[in-house]
Design brief:
The protein is of the alpha+beta class. The protein is about 55% helix and about 20% strand. Bound molecules: adenosine-5'-diphosphate.
Length: about 450
């Protein structure tokens, strides 16, 4: 359960508990006051009726009963009077409310009894009289209006409690969202920060609340991360740069030795092999340097509009010069009439390096040394360039790893390489806001497709 839902539920639970307690207190105190009030009225009635009936001569009793019944203010009132022996001496209504002589005896012993009778009737029994005579008077009636008001109150309390709970939940939901909004903003900003934009910082707001504290803690952490990343990248860049100078010197000295000892075949063989190793090391340090450079300072490098068709032809020509045995097939499909759509904003040398890496891989890992390149254009103003070969292919479980630096498929060990080409290529493509996709089948070949947004789309 997320914090927002938890906060809303907790808020609603607190408000509901308060509302329910309030409603119960109101209901119970209203019911008690109704009952007290009703019993008081019943008692007054009992005293009044008893005083009239017991004080008046017996022969007028019927007349008094009629006057009494018609003047009654209580709903379905019944007055019953018992003597000390429990005999009924007066009853103004012929209704059985389970009031018996035994009850009368109890009244004499306890003076005043409150009665809960069947069908919602309530009654009171009091002892009335003096030393010479005394009677038990029981008055019962239905508190019709009082009970009606009570049930109306119950309904109103129930509806207002439900509405209160609902509104408190909605209110809680709204306020929780409002209070957590800055937190969500921090989360979405942090999600946008990757190793490529560690220089970004979060907004620290007013600097007084917990969210500002969180943002500032993140910012301090980003500063430390950025420093560590920069140190690491500049180390790789410096180290590979430092390698290159002695390697170049060694290379030229070996070439000099080869010229000077051209007739010593054994030595020539050895020097050729050393030269190959040095070239390979040189190649490695060049790639490491490029990788470190693309990580370090692409943001500072100057970009320009590049015609992709021209760039690909230039990459092919450079590669073919160094590898004359390579057969490259270039095809253009669905190119736009507007040539501006073939322009990509970027750094020419880097893009060329990426294309040459892909051509080189297709050449290295194919059986017939043939590379098929297709340049096309999609409606989404995206240029795609695919590099296809009929080579060894890549096992599906390895496809995700080949873009990691120094990763090589174990079967590729016989082929020269250091596992840096694709890491560098994918980095270059992502710097140009493009993507790279691989489709491959072992034994049948691979196809790497680069997609780049055209300059007009950006
Ligand atoms: P390198 O080619 O120097 O080994 P890369 O980073 O260019 O390094 O490639 C990494 C690995 O991906 C290669 O070693 C190889 O195993 C695999 N690979 C790349 N391109 C292809 C391809 N066209 N066909 C088959 N395997 C490939």
């Amino acid at each position: 359960m997320n914090i927002r839902r938890k906060l809303s539920l907790q808020f609603a639970a607190i408000v509901s508990t308060i509302l329910v307690c309030f409603s119960l207190v109101i209901y119970v105190s209203y019911e008690r006051s109704r009952r007290n009030d009703f019993y008081n009225r019943l008692e007054e009635r009992a005293v009044l009726t008893a005083s009239i009936i017991t004080d008046v001569v017996d022969k007028h009793r019927d007349l008094i009963r009629r006057i009494d019944t018609t003047s009654s203010t209580l709903y379905r009132e019944q007055v019953m009077i018992f003597d000390r022996n429990g005999n009924l001496v007066y009853n103004d209504r012929a209704e059985d409310r389970q009031i018996t002589g035994n009850l009368a005896k109890k009244i004499f012993s306890s003076n005043r009894i409150l009665l809960e009778l069947p069908y919602g009737y309530e009654g009171i029994g009091i002892e009335y009289g003096n030393k010479t005579y005394s009677y038990a008077v029981v008055v019962s009636a239905l508190d019709y209006h009082g009970k009606n008001r009570l049930s109306n109150l119950k309904l109103s309390l129930f509806i207002s409690t439900i509405l209160g709970i609902l509104f408190s939940f909605l209110g809680g939901w709204y306020f929780a969202r409002k209070s957590l909004m800055p937190m969500s903003q921090v989360v979405s900003r942090v999600n946008l920060i990757t190793e490529n934009n560690l220089n970004e910082r979060l907004d620290e707001g007013n600097g007084h609340d917990e969210i500002s504290e969180l943002s500032s803690t993140f910012n301090r952490m980003l500063e430390r991360l950025e420093l560590a990343f920069t140190l690491q990248k500049s180390f790789v860049s410096h180290a590979s740069h430092e390698f290159r100078t002695p390697l170049t010197i060694m290379l030229s000295e070996i070439e000099m030795m080869m010229i000077n000892h051209s007739n010593n075949e054994e030595l020539q063989q050895m020097l050729r092999s050393v030269k190959e190793e040095i070239l390979s090391l040189n190649n490695l340090s060049t790639k490491l340097l490029s990788l470190a450079k693309t990580n370090l300072d692409f943001s500072n490098s100057t970009t320009s509009g590049i015609r992709i068709d021209e760039l690909i032809m230039s990459a092919i020509s450079d590669f073919s010069k160094a590898n004359p045995t390579c057969k490259i097939n270039l095809e253009f499909s669905d190119l736009p009439e507007n040539q501006e759509f073939l322009v990509v904003e970027g750094e020419e040398q880097l893009l060329k390096t990426a294309f040459i890496n892909l051509i080189s891989n297709a050449f290295k890992f194919s059986n017939d040394s043939a590379v098929f390149i297709t340049v096309g254009f999609s409606n989404a103003r995206t240029i795609f360039i695919s590099f296809k070969d009929n080579g060894v292919g890549i096992p599906p479980e390895e496809v995700d790893n080949i873009f990691e630096p120094f990763y090589r498929i174990s079967t590729s060990n016989k082929v020269e390489g250091h596992g840096l080409g694709l890491a560098l290529t994918s980095r270059i493509i992502s710097l140009h806001k493009g993507t790279i996709r691989v489709r491959s089948k072992v034994g049948q070949g691979s196809e790497f497709t680069v997609m780049l947004p055209t300059a007009t789309r950006r």
